[in-house]
């Protein structure tokens, strides 16, 4: 069935004005000022986007789709994500990762979950590995994983500057990154190293040492959680000014914020105000990941679970409360991750791109309708498609 979105104000994420969008199958067929519905043509669904903003489907490139955590023993392993946990947040593309636990959470499980989510209607990729170095891969080699397995686009999340890290040397991190880079070059993928940044005062020191000593560009890394404390955030500004990418985590807790974590909307504005290119910034949710709390001696004292819906909530807050423009705010969850991760059919509303579309109420900016690969997942705030095991 063809789908025609009419009368909406389109951000691709650049503002295009009022446009109509024709979806043909799973692709965007045409974008034009006015597309007429042919008379007596019954096999077309018309979606009225009057008083709506029409934007690209959101990309969440750091989600623990199989669950994460376990820092408080086996009972604290967080559950697998469900389809509507993703779609109700406006997300149509996710990148699955493992985290602290690379033993009971495995790459085969991660890939199977990714394929399951695709069968249910959203696009899903994964990174190979977890916190640990050496990286536990599928084929035995990072480069081979990226080249030979379609779903694998990079490696991570590799833990750095954290008490849970494998405490790698610069040489070890350089070798790992080189494998990912060459794997990406040979397969047309990004081959990024998704680096978990912890609370250590070393911050990005190890990454910068690799960049300075070895023939590896700073853009081969995507360090995440860069807003977790004031000194890491200040380092994020300096790091981005060197040309590096930085990712801010939207899932948080009141305690984290009280202890100095920088809210993502505020972080985005401060980065832009400090002259950082908006194209170097992304948001991710850390969805289904554990948000563990440790005391000053590193002893676990509790956790909460990350939520994918926090991704767009942070963007909404950046627009409405902090004053970042709609275009700049949307880029960090649409075109920026698409460009950085080489997801070439994602992140934009353009002809021949994948038909991943979100409609927002113009006044409230709340999510109204979500279309993933041409399939209506949510319409008028009503869930139309649920996951296999969702009631």
From TrEMBL:
- Mitochondrion found in the keyword field: no
Q: Which GO terms describe its cellular component?
A: cytoplasm
Question: Where along the chain is Zn(2+) 1 bound?
Answer: 62, 64, 286
Q: Which domain of life is it from?
A: Bacteria
Which cofactors does it use? Zn(2+)
Q: Name one GO biological process term.
A: proteolysis
Q: Where does substrate bind?
A: 69-71, 100, 131, 164, 228, 290
Active-site residues from the entry: 286
Residue intervals of the Amidohydrolase domain: 45-86
Task: Quote the record's cofactor note.
Answer: Binds 2 Zn(2+) ions per subunit.
Which NCBIfam families does the UniProt record give?
isoAsp_dipep (TIGR01975)
Similarity comment: Belongs to the peptidase M38 family.
- Protein's name according to its UniProt entry: Isoaspartyl dipeptidase
Q: Which organism is it from?
A: Anaeromonas frigoriresistens
Q: What is the lineage of its organism?
A: Bacteria, Bacillati, Bacillota, Tissierellia, Tissierellales
